[in-house]
Specification:
Elements lengths: L22 H16 L4 H8 L3 H8 L7 H11 L9 H6 L4 H11 L1 E8 L10 H9 L7 H14 L11 E7 H5 L5 H14 L5 E6 L13 E6 L4 E7 L2 E5 L2 H17 L3 H14 L1
Parallel strand pairs: 1-2, 2-3
Antiparallel strand pairs: 1-4, 4-5, 5-6
Helix pairs in contact: 2-3, 7-8, 10-12
């Protein structure tokens, strides 16, 4: 990201009226059409072969909607695309994200460590589908159904980072107790969400710590933060509030955030205590 990593980004996550769909969706669609025509198949024949509707195949070819991973794998198999579609899937998924988040998502995808503090909500990388759906349905101004579907899919696709093998990625999540007590969706959804947190906390590359409400004032109360370290050991900080974001790489600025996060870890419950608190909150639902 270079110098761009030091600038303050102020684009919102809402789609502007008349905005074109992402160019990568169009490029992907053109490749699908090329391979389909080379295979001598009609759109209907391809749809039948991969288990999708004619409308879905046409929409993907025209770049009006993004292909999901299952579509890509089926098309690769039927069309013999040799990996040409598969290699674009990550970019197709990233383009589903809000504009203000896409640059950071690229940095995140290349990082080897990610430390965060979340005061309001369960972190996106740890959200279950129903939790993410409920959050996006509460967005205002309201989002249309297609945008909600795309953003939920993109959020879930990002979670592949948790199990990435090469290079493996280390995660430290510090989450406020109020964030895990807030019932998003329904008590049933929240119970599944808390159980998912407990499952994720058992992963060797994931540390989940809860900041108890009775801790009182601490340095995290200024707001959420995400800290990244790249393969070449460059460090970044991402701060977001109401769809206004800032990504910084200045070492003096970033160093202060890393120290702040380190202090938060000492003030939060340790991982074992955090799991017990989550279990207790789940038992209250």
């Amino acid at each position: 990201m270079g110098k761009a990593g030091e600038r303050e980004c102020r684009t919102t996550g809402r789609r502007s009226p008349g905005r074109e769909h992402p160019a990568v969706w169009s490029a992907y669609g053109k490749l699908v059409r090329l391979f389909r025509e080379r295979a001598g198949l009609t759109q209907q024949a391809l749809a039948d072969a991969i288990g999708y509707s004619l409308e879905q195949v046409a929409s993907v070819e025209q770049g009006r909607r993004p292909a999901k991973a299952a579509f890509t794998e089926a098309a690769e198999r039927v069309l013999g695309a040799g990996g040409a579609l598969r290699v674009l899937q990550e970019d197709v998924d990233r383009a589903k994200l809000p504009l203000f988040f896409q640059d950071f998502a690229l940095l995140e995808s290349e990082a080897v460590s990610r430390f965060s503090y979340d005061p309001m909500l369960v972190p996106g990388l740890l959200q279950i589908e129903e939790y993410a759906q409920a959050l996006l349905e509460a967005h205002f101004p309201p989002l249309d159904d297609e945008t909600i579907e795309q953003r939920v899919a993109a959020r879930l696709a990002r979670q592949a980072l948790l199990t990435r093998k090469s290079p493996p990625m280390v995660f430290v999540f510090v989450v406020e107790e109020s964030a895990i007590r807030r019932v998003v969706g329904s008590p049933e959804v929240m119970l599944r969400q808390l159980n998912h947190l407990l499952k994720c906390s058992t992963m060797r590359n994931v540390a989940l710590q809860v900041m108890p409400t009775d801790r009182g004032a601490h340095s995290g109360l200024n707001g959420a933060m995400v800290l990244l370290e790249s393969v070449d050991r460059r460090q970044y900080v991402y701060v977001e509030a109401q769809d206004i974001v800032s990504v910084r790489s200045d070492r003096h600025e970033v160093s202060e955030f890393w120290m702040r996060h380190g202090m938060l870890r000492t003030q939060a419950l340790n991982t074992e205590e955090s799991s017990r608190l989550i279990e207790r909150i789940a038992g209250e639902l």
